[in-house]
Amino acid sequence: MINATNPYESQPATFSRFPPVVKTLLVANVAVFLLMNFSLQVKIPLMKYCALWPVSNPWIFTTHSGWQSPFAPWQMITYGFMHTGFTHLFFNMFAFWMFGSVIERVWGSKRFAFYYFACVFGAAIAQLFVSYGKGYPTIGASGGVFGLLLAYGMMFPRQKLIFIAFPVEARWFVLGYGVVELIMGVTGTMSGVAHFAHLGGMIFGFLLIQFWLGRFPIKPRPGKLF
């Protein structure tokens, strides 16, 4: 649970190797990665149906050139299970395990799962907004992982993270990473990376945590999960 009275003074739980939701999602991501590679061999257009395609037009889903986007609502979740290659999968899953295992142990599996998928969904909304009318899809768990990074930084702000051989407090690491993502997104640096999806995951995660802490006019019910 989040410490609502003093949420920034929590102590990080020890790393748990494979908490249940983390374990399930790790297996699922690896399985989907293998399925993606198999689908290429047998000519099954998995990318068409499961990657996050841009919405070209909110009413007819077509571009000005007449190309029809294969966007579907379920893609706002399924894209988070797909990865471009082994390196993409490995680094996302390593970060997912590193931060997710601690957060799931503190929050519990249900709250953790809800939070993670909310960040994946929020990242999709941000990416759909900035990719409107474009013809390329987005895949990867990074939006959800950035949401976990944000949560870790809020829960354990003074916990040291190693960044290029130097220890950095989690709060400054998260803030710095967010600023870098914003700058690269605005300037178009590394245009093949969905920077605004990363930011979307962080923003949705921040808003959800604020709601759970009772900092919005609509309060969560006492004793309820959400």
Automatic annotation (TrEMBL):
UniProt entry keywords in alphabetical sequence: Hydrolase, Membrane, Protease, Transmembrane, Transmembrane helix
Q: Which GO molecular function terms does the record list? A: serine-type endopeptidase activity
Q: Which domain of life is it from?
A: Bacteria
Alphabetized Gene3D superfamilies for the sequence: Rhomboid-like (1.20.1540.10)
**Domain spans labelled Peptidase S54 rhomboid:** 73-209
Name the source organism. Answer: Ruficoccus amylovorans
Question: Which GO cellular component terms are attached?
Answer: membrane
* Cellular localization per UniProt: Membrane
Record SMART domains: DUF1751 (SM01160)
Instruction: Please list every transmembrane segment annotated in the UniProt record, as residue ranges.
Output: 20-38, 79-100, 112-130, 136-154, 161-180, 192-213
Please name the SUPFAM superfamilies in this protein's record.
Answer: Rhomboid-like (SSF144091)
Q: How does it sit in the membrane?
A: Multi-pass membrane protein
Q: Which is a Pfam family this sequence falls into?
A: Rhomboid
Q: What is the protein's given name?
A: Rhomboid family intramembrane serine protease
* PANTHER family, per the entry: PRESENILIN-ASSOCIATED RHOMBOID-LIKE PROTEIN, MITOCHONDRIAL (PTHR43731:SF14), RHOMBOID PROTEASE (PTHR43731)
Please give the family membership noted in the entry. Answer: Belongs to the peptidase S54 family.
Q: Which InterPro entries match?
A: Peptidase_S54_rhomboid_dom, Rhomboid-like_sf, Rhomboid_protease_S54
Record keyword Transmembrane present: yes
An example of a Gene Ontology BP annotation on this entry?
proteolysis
